[in-house]
Amino acid sequence: MSNTHVISHPGGGQPAPDFIVREDHHPENGTLLGFWIYLMSDCLIFACLFAVYGVQGRAYAGGPSGADLFELPLVALNTAMLLLSSITYGFAMLKMQQNKLSGTVGWLIVTGLFGLAFLGLELFEFSHLIHIGAGPQRSAFLSSFFTLVGTHGLHVTFGIIWLVTLLFQLKRHGLIPENRRRLMCLSMFWHFLDVVWIGVFTFVYLMGVLQ
Q: What range(s) does the Heme-copper oxidase subunit III family profile domain occupy (predicted)?
């Protein structure tokens, strides 16, 4: 049976038919494909920022270097917060697949708390660096550092805002197909941020201290 209906207009003459498609006209998995394309564009942004840092990473202008500024224990703790948030988000997705709304919401809240802890430690680091005179205006090295790490922090901030919005949608509508799709997109985004941060931790912090 056709899902297309024809509606004729009243009046004289032969009316032009209006076609209404009742079935879902969105392509299957179109949202996920579009989101993958977005993530690839984000990869290009971070690739440019990594390239800039690679060029300017030793332009200290007579100021402090990464070995003078970076505190690896603090950065390692911050890294653990973000990696743990990725694990807890995985638990939330498992609960979603089991159709357990309360478990999904609970693990998402834990994920958000880990994300907030990550942001808090990063803001503390930025505040400390600025306080001791190592702000982004001090040298090209610090300008590229603040830009790269700050851009990642902004992405985490937007991810937390997205997560909170999803919590309200889950409370109101439950695990409907639309919310499942949104959870899947946020999962891809969150894990992408983890991968980028591993690059930041290795390329910026570890290599900076080793220099």
A: 28-209
Q: What is the mean pLDDT of the chain?
A: 89
Are 205 and 72 contacting, i.e. CB atoms less than 8 angstroms apart? Answer: yes
In the three-class reduction of DSSP (H, G, I as helix; E, B as strand; rest coil), residue 21 is classed as strand
Find all residues with CB under 8 Å of 80, minimum gap 6, and list them.
Answer: none
pTM of the model: 0.84
Q: Give the per-residue SS3 of 40-105.
A: HHHHHHHHHHHHHHHHHCCCCCCCCCHHHHCCHHHHHHHHHHHHHHHHHHHHHHHHHHCCCHHHHH
Q: What is the DSSP letter of 17?
A: P
pLDDT, tens only, 117-142? 999 999 999 999 999 999 999 999 99
What span, in angstroms and rounded, lies between the C-alpha atoms of 143 and 125? 15
